Design the sequence.
């Protein structure tokens, strides 16, 4: 077989995974803030969460608030994603359109969904005990999910789902159109994340 043969892997779907600096201190503040919101409203919102608690959107206008402090803390990671995409980062136009938290207790999970009308979405892990539920990404190519021949194993070319192991302090940033879900929390501890969306003003 010719050595000139190639496999050209076109149009990849990236998920950027960062370990946030000094996450322990950040997580203490976020945890206190999130559970404080939960005490005030233990019903929350119903979105993709099944049995879990979904907070209302955070107030990002409070310059001294914990959510704003967290956003500033991870801004360099957002800039890095823009750089890798080859997008122009203009701080006057890049906006976090919404930020919220989800607490998944034992038996809770999140069904497949996307975050429409944004460029990027993210999940940051405040609490991530063992067996709390992996992040699961699914191919946005719907045809490849439903029309394929028999195979003798999963490869990077025929896989339609991918799971990502996460630990506390991990930050995942991915295209907002990427379908994703969260597996069931099978641990006895809470799984706590902060999620947010990023858009660019026209």
Sequence:
């Amino acid at each position: 077989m010719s050595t000139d043969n190639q496999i050209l892997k076109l149009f990849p779907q990236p998920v950027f995974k960062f370990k946030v600096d000094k996450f322990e201190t950040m997580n203490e503040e976020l945890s206190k803030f999130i559970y404080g919101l939960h005490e005030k409203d233990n019903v929350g919102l119903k979105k993709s969460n099944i049995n879990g608690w979904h907070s209302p959107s955070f107030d990002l206008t409070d310059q001294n608030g914990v959510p704003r402090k967290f956003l500033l803390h991870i801004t360099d990671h957002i800039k890095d994603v823009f750089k890798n995409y080859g997008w122009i980062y203009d701080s006057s136009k890049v906006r976090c359109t919404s930020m919220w938290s989800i607490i998944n207790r034992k038996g809770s999970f999140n069904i497949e969904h996307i975050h429409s009308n944004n460029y990027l979405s993210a999940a940051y892990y405040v609490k991530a005990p063992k067996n709390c539920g992996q992040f699961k990404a699914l191919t946005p190519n719907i045809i490849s999910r439903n029309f394929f021949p028999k195979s003798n194993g999963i490869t990077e070319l025929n896989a339609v789902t991918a799971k990502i192991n996460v630990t506390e302090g991990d930050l995942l940033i991915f295209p907002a159109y990427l379908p994703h879900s969260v597996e069931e929390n099978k641990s006895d501890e809470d799984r706590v994340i902060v999620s947010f969306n990023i858009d660019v003003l026209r």
Observations:
- The two ends are 50 Å apart (CA to CA).
- Residues 146 and 160 are 10 Å apart (CA to CA).
